[in-house]
Description:
Blueprint: E1 3-8, E2 18-21, E3 26-32, E4 35-40, E5 54-56, E6 59-61, E7 68-70, E8 76-78, E9 87-88, E10 90-93, E11 96-100, E12 117-121, H1 125-136, E13 142-147, H2 157-163, H3 179-182, E14 185-188, E15 191-195, E16 200-203, E17 208-210, E18 213-216, E19 220-222, E20 235-236, H4 241-250, E21 256-260, H5 264-275, E22 279-283, H6 291-294, H7 296-308, E23 312-314, E24 319-325, E25 327-333, E26 338-340, E27 343-346, E28 350-352, E29 368-369, E30 375-377, E31 380-382, E32 387-391, E33 394-396, H8 401-415, E34 427-432, E35 435-441, E36 448-454, E37 459-466, E38 469-476, H9 479-488, H10 495-503
Parallel strand pairs: 12-13, 12-18, 13-14, 18-31, 20-27, 21-22, 21-27, 22-23, 29-32
Antiparallel strand pairs: 1-11, 2-3, 3-4, 4-9, 5-6, 6-7, 7-8, 10-11, 15-16, 16-17, 19-28, 24-25, 25-26, 30-31, 32-33, 34-35, 35-38, 36-37, 37-38
Amino acid sequence: MNMRIVARLINLPEDRGVRVETAAHHILLVRSGSEVRAYQADCPHAGAPLEQGVVCDGRIICPWHKAAFRVDDGQVCEPPALVQLKQYPVEIHDGVVSVGDEALPSPVAPHTNDSRCFIVIGAGAAGSAAVATLRRKGFSGRLLWIDQEQDPAYDRTALSKFVICGEMPPQETPPLLDEATCHASRIHGEVRHLDPQARRIELADGRHFDYDAALLATGGEARPLDIPGTVLNNVFVLRSRDDAARIVKAAQPGSCAVIIGDSFIGLEAASALRKRGLTVQVVGRHEIPLAAQLGKRIGASLRQLHEANGVIFHTASEPARLEGHMDVTTVVLKNGHRLAADLVLIGVGVTPATGFVEGLEKAEDQSLKADAGLSVAPGLWAAGDMVTFPWNGQPVRIEHWRVAQQLGVLAARNMLGAQQVFADVPFFWTYHFGKTFELLGHPRHWNQLHVEGDLQRHDFIALLCQGDEVEAVVACEHQRAMALLSQRLKHPRKKAEVLELIRGL
């Protein structure tokens, strides 16, 4: 094997990786004392440059979406990445670091004769993460993966950020897993009935499957808007690749779009369609969008960014009806205002997709009530938007894509016999007019806001504190700091301690 000199040991820091290029590969060098390891330089999830992240607590943290990999062997510890880093051989002589041209073989889990049947229902974020984890952890039994979509298991976060603005064709939405990784039998079908006592799943076409362990990961369904006119043409929700394709077809530059709902998805869609050249109006229930999650000052900063880019907000009234002949033409508000609309996108939230589940305890919002290990019945677990679970002493349901993945990983481990509880930091990112806003934590009780940077210029990092303790962090354009905090906030931190970490980068 050819070994190429790439660096001197003395020049390699220990708090971050260093990118080097050989004739064959882009390599990330990671130093730990006198040892150096070499990995692929870009994150396998979305290609983020890993040298822009951090190395802390024995982990390499991706700057973009906070995937975590073990320094020792490149194994994935936290999603959204679902596969390990490719590793390359390293030699060190007299302080000079050389790297080989060929990747080291990936470790293969020992094969065992496992007669069990595991079933994962749902091929979104939670289901995909569970399937990948089951195989990575060595499950060699029969694994069935059921989903309603013909071609499931793709990155839905790209739909509102990159697909409907025209930067990415719908059919090129990145897959979450390839066939070589999942090693599961994919089944296209709709689950009609689940019997937890008999451990049996029945599909709408009559097929049925018995299981030893199963995971419910069906996510959420778009909440309908109960007003006249929603059946008109060019009235959409955005939950799938097919939804995005229909929106792209209708979203002709110069036409008028009305978005009903000022959630993260609604505002991302506003940014995307405005970038596409449409006139965009948002009908929202809140004068300041996302104030409940981010606080009024940060919510106002986000609204200001949208208004500076031409988005028009209507917050004094709710929609009363949609009008048109065949195709929608007008959104009529309860205050009488009429908004021209060539297309309407409804984004007023989701409801847990649990209608087919009987005999299990449900919360008021119809999500399944799970224990701390995500179990909802013997041999049955639930993960993602459809589950309420105890976290930090309180029941929560968190509709974040990466949290769904984290829960899928946790459920898969417990299906294999672990007894773990959710101990990660919720993380969410959202993209508006070229700016990435990130949220770490699950803010609910904070009463103080400390801002480092400039909210109006959308270059800041803000601490949401309950007294002197940091409950959550919101940032724009501070991805490396957020990568570090994604690990350090796993334990309670005081404001002064977090500020020292931020300012030390």
